[in-house]
Design goal:
The complex is a heterodimer of chains A (about 230) and B (about 800). Chain A has helices at about 45-50, 75-85, 100-110, 115-130, 145-155, 175-190, 200-205, and strands at about 1-10, 15-30, 35, 60-65, 65-70, 85-90, 160-165, 195, 210-215, 215-225. Chain A has about 230 residues and is α/β, with parallel strands linked by helices. In chain A, a hairpin with a 2-residue loop joins strand 9 and strand 10. Chain A starts with a strand and ends in a 6-residue tail after the last strand. In chain A, about 45% of the residues are buried. Chain B has about 800 residues and is an alpha+beta fold. Chain B has four domains: about 1-40 and about 300-470 and about 685-815, no CATH class; about 55-95 and about 210-295; about 100-200, no CATH class; about 485-670, no CATH class. In chain B, strands 1, 2, 3, 4, 5, 6, 7, 8, 9, 10, 11, 12 and 13 form a 13-stranded mixed sheet that branches. In chain B, strands 16-17-22-19-21-20 form a six-stranded mixed β-barrel. In chain B, strands 15-23-14-24 form a four-stranded antiparallel sheet. The longest helix of chain B has about 40 residues, at about 345-380. Classes of the chains: A alpha/beta (about 230), B alpha+beta (about 800). At the A-B interface, helix 1, helix 2 and helix 3 of A face helix 1, helix 10, helix 11 and helix 13 of B.
Chain lengths: ~230, ~800
Amino acid sequence: MIRTNNLRKIYTTEEVETTALENVHIEIKEGEFVSIMGPSGCGKSTLMNILGLLDNPSGGEYFFTGTDVAKYSERQRAMMRKENIGFVFQSFNLIDELTIYENVELPLLYLKMPVDERKRKVKKVLEIMEIMHRRNHFPQQLSGGQQQRVAVARAIVAEPKIILADEPTGNLDSSHGDEVMKMLTELNDGGTTVVMVTHSPTYAEYGHRVIHLFDGKVVTENFNSKFHV
Amino acid sequence: MFSNYYKIFVRTLSRQKVFSFINITGLAIGITCFIILFLFVLDEFGYDKYNEKAEQIYRVILQLRFKGEDATNAKTAPALGNVLKKDFPEVISFTRLGYFGQHNLRYNNKVIREGDIYTADSNYFDIFTLPFVYGDSKNALKNPNSIVISETAAAKYFGNENPLGKTFTVDDGGTYLITGVMKDYPQKSSFSCNFLLSMSTYSETANQDWFNLGYTTFLVLKKKTNISEFNNKMKNVVRDYVWPQASAVLGFSLENFNKSGNAYALKLQPLSSIYLHSQSDYGVDTNSEWGNMRLSNISYSYIFLAIGTFVLLIAVFNFMNLATAKSEKRAREVGIRKTLGSDRRNLIVQFISESIFTCLLSVILSVVLVQMALPSFNDLVSRNLSLDLFNNFYTIPILFLFACLVGFISGSYPAFYLSSFQSSHILKSGGSGKSRKSRIRSVLVITQFAISITLIIGTIIIKDQLEYIQNKNLGFNKDALITINNGSTIRKDTKSFQEEISKISAVQSSTASSLMFTSGIPGSGYIYNKMSGKDVITAQFLDVDFNFTKTYQIQMKEGRYFSNEFGSDSGAVVINEAMAKKFNDKDPVGNNLAELNSDTKEMVPFKIIGVVKDFNYESLHKKVRPLVLHLSPVQQAVTIITIRVSPKNLDQTIKSIEEVWHKFAGNEKMFYRFVDENLARMYRNEQKIATITTVFSFLAIIIACLGLFGLVSFITEQRTKEIGVRKVLGASVGEIILMVSKEFIKWVLLANLIAWPIAYYVMNNWLQNFAYRMELSWSVFIISGIMALIIAVATVSYQVAKVAVQNPVTSLRYE
């Protein structure tokens, strides 16, 4: 599903050049649940941005479903994103001016899906996430856990091949955190590939394997014994 | 998708009330200004188009260059029309307009002195589209002493009766037969009058007279006539008809005349250009136009259009500025939308449609504002403008397109700016990742202030110049001078009237003269110390009496003024300094001046007995032109009596004068004016501009401040944390205000540097319209700059102070 070769990302400002990623090789297979860990500033988010096609790498190759997308234009990336990738963020990133229903509907609008199908899908996903009764509320009226459920709902509504979750539990208490992890696991069980960045070793354990990043390099890859066959 | 944009738009609007208010109202005021000024300019362009043949009608003008001085006359000789019709196959028909002065018209017991009786050829109504209420327009002006009157005039004399076939008794005997009642001239006609008398009433108009430049000649030309070719061919008319007559009197040939760099050229001017372009493009001397002409200048249209566009621009810039300033707030949305699969184009479409929505709201609001403001604006400029929403099929679609256009323009920069945010940045940091300082934003604010400052400077200079004119030494004392305009009513008794009013204690002196302070002061050709020659001097002349200089308080420079004590003064003239300068003679007093008598075509000699100091007898747009004062008997049809009175108890004085008036004039009203008012009337156009620029500059500044206010509030909001930290570290409120204001002060100073040369150039050009103009002083520029600075600093300080006085803990908790 995902393969990178010598992936590099260098940020240049007027004065300094910072290497955020250096020679990163990773491979993620379809149906996998991968956790990424590492201290602040190690390049986790940079990696996620590149994997999520929000940003282009400075060098190296990036194969997404077999295609090299490393040099894709903003437009091509946007096309690829909306059809294949769902995002879940630490800070939920819901649009305050839109209701829960409208937030979840948004990816389908960009896919130009017909109205009936759209309604059906949004309804279904809201029911799965048990937030149907909240559909006409605005994000600010919901608790953090509920907001993250909306975010997950939005991430999966278009039935993406892969979900990228950037510290999805970071802003939640433990009970809500557990709930989100449960949802991700269920999605993965259903066949969706999940890549998750986390600081929590406990939640990292939910993954089939954990990739450790340090100073922009992959240092270790641990396979979770639970899943290792 | 659009419904999604629309939802976001409406919800953002209601959530950010102050912002929305500034945005929509500011834009609405800008659009209102633009619409109003646009309506005004549009109105300026429709003149004389009511004529069905408007496209084919031309006026013949006479361009004269003599001794390096150019003068273009709107009037031509009576014989011209016939010759052009005869010799030029392009001419379908011609018609002339003439004027023979004021007349008393009597019907039953009603006697009214009418100043706007013009004479017209019998085919006048074939050429000008003036429908008749009564009578037959084809034949109405055929016979001598036939008169066509307007509906207004008909109502004045005859009420609801049909006046056809009735007669006016004229002055002391003759009669005019009413042969037609025409509809009033449309409001958008450059010429209008209430009485048109048949040209055949005056038999002399049929003469081959090339000297009497007293008629406007209109031609109807075949379509697609080549005008420059036609103009060129008219040289033959000068050679074959004008010059034989001229050389017989003046004694020199056309070749000699042209060789010395002089020119005498007939030119065509399209009817549709008369109202706006006579002065600017054809150089027609305003003083040669009929007193009833309604004229404007194209440059005013440009000025107003420029002001309207500027005010609109300021409002649009506000919109752009505020939209980019609040971009931090929208950044997250941009990021989310991008991760969810929106590409840049989607976002650009979204933001531009939001801005079009806003503009539509502003346009709707501005339509209301326009309707509210138009009545007062109409009063201000004496117009009848209206924004016709439903009767004109195009109005609403045009307004809609206008909203889309303004929305597109004002939304495009924010759209490109916002959509360029990197989603990976925004979602991590919550900010756009762009620097707080936006170069375009500062360019926009600088431009706004440059425009505002230019407008302030313009306003001050226009006011100063008008004041300058009003206080300029005119060479006579204009205060407490009353002019009776219908003085010729008592022509025979003028002397007795003057003697009688001199008994009123407040009356200091009085004089009867021909008309002054108006366009159309007549001129003539003079030759100095000879009876013939090619060094003719053109000069205006006034008919005056013994008390003229005494009443006006005009100073003598040399020689003496006319006096009773010298019996020979009827053969004498007094000239002004400007005339004396033409002679190249240190002491012209005692020498001869020959004048061409246009009736007899002979030169008549006069003796120069004195030189008066120059005084302004025309508008100050013109330098004092050479002038010859003739002692009455008054030659001119129009006569005024000017009375110098004591400035106290003016009402009582006027009442006493009126009593005497009625002894001589019977029931006829005394039409009087104060000379200073009369002079002020000559600057109506300038007054109009002054008021309009003042009002709109004021609005421009308000809109600019509104924008600045919004911008600063966003900037301080963004810097709240910084302000808190600085306060914790010991900064005072004043220091913080200075810190934030510094940038704006820099901008305003820069705006001054841009505005000054522009304002200097534009205003200097405008001042060229005046022969007498104030010196442009640097203080005006500096004062305007300081004013703008104060306004900007006050706006900024108010906003910043609000944040700066807060407890720093509050500002720090903000994040």
